[in-house]
Amino acid sequence: MTTATPPTAVTTPRTVERLVQGQATSDGAGVKLTRVLTQNLQRRLDPFLMLDAFGTDNPGDYIGGFPDHPHRGFETVTYMLQGRMRHRDSAGNVGLLVPGSVQWMTAGRGVIHSEMPEQEDGAMEGFQLWLNLPAREKMRDPWYRDIRPEEIPEWRAPGVTARVIAGHTHGVAGAMQREATAPLYLDLHMGAGSRFEQPLPPSHNAFVYVYRGAVTVAGQAVPAQRMAVLANDAGADGVVIEAASDARLLLIAGQPLKEPIVQYGPFVMNSQQQIYEALSDFRDGRLGESAR
Question: φ, ψ for residue 274 (rounded to 5)?
Answer without folding.
Answer: -65, -30
